[in-house]
Amino acid sequence: MYCPNCDKIIDTIEKRCPTCNEYLLPNKNGKLDLVKIFESSDIGMTAIIKSILISADIDYLVKGEHMQSILGGQFSFAFGADIGKVEFFVHIDDEEVATELLTEINSE
Q1: Which structural domain range is residue 49 located in?
Q2: Are 79 and 36 members of one domain?
Q3: Could you tell me which residues come within 8 angstroms of residue 60 by beta carbon, excluding any fewer than 6 positions away?
Q4: CATH value at residue 55
Q5: The model scores a pTM over 0.85
Q6: Residues 81 and 50 reside in one and the same domain
Q7: Using CB atoms within 10 A of its CB, is residue 86 exposed (0-12), middle (13-18) or buried (19+)?
Q8: Phi and psi for 17 in degrees, rounded to 5?
Q9: Are residues 46 and 89 in the same domain?
Q10: What CA–CA distance (Å, rounded) separates 45 from 14?
Q11: Do 45 and 92 belong together in one domain?
């Protein structure tokens, strides 16, 4: 992990720097190594995926969630194909576990 405030690489699994309490980044360039693990326009499915990832203690990023809640994916033809679609991303280190947890859902 890298502390942007102290400019140090720190060998820890903690989310904050033990010296200055700044949020740590996964690497010095600050880029997260995220991979998409799931995509849906079903608002109910979004809640299920969140629940599964939270239960497994897997951090995730959701893209498009707010547009889904406004339009529910029902009117995507009027605004473009991506409106109403929610995408879930996890860190590359969690990809295998997250994918396995979502195997049955992804196959439907």
Answers
A1: 32-106
A2: yes
A3: 50, 53, 88, 89, 90, 98
A4: 3.30.70.790
A5: no
A6: yes
A7: buried
A8: -65, 130
A9: yes
A10: 30
A11: yes
Report DSSP state, residue 28.
Answer: T
Q: Are 48 and 13 part of one and the same domain?
A: no
Count of domains for the chain: 2
Instruction: Write down how long the chain is.
Output: 108
The token duo for 98 is 């997250």
Each residue's pLDDT expressed in tens, for the chain with a length of 108 residues: 788 888 888 888 788 888 898 888 776 665 667 889 998 888 788 889 999 999 999 988 888 776 544 444 444 444 444 456 888 988 888 999 999 999 877 655
* Alpha-carbon gap, residue 53 to 36, rounded angstroms: 13
Token look-up 């009117």 returns 75
44/32 Cα distance (integer angstroms): 27
Looking up tokens 């969140």 gives 50
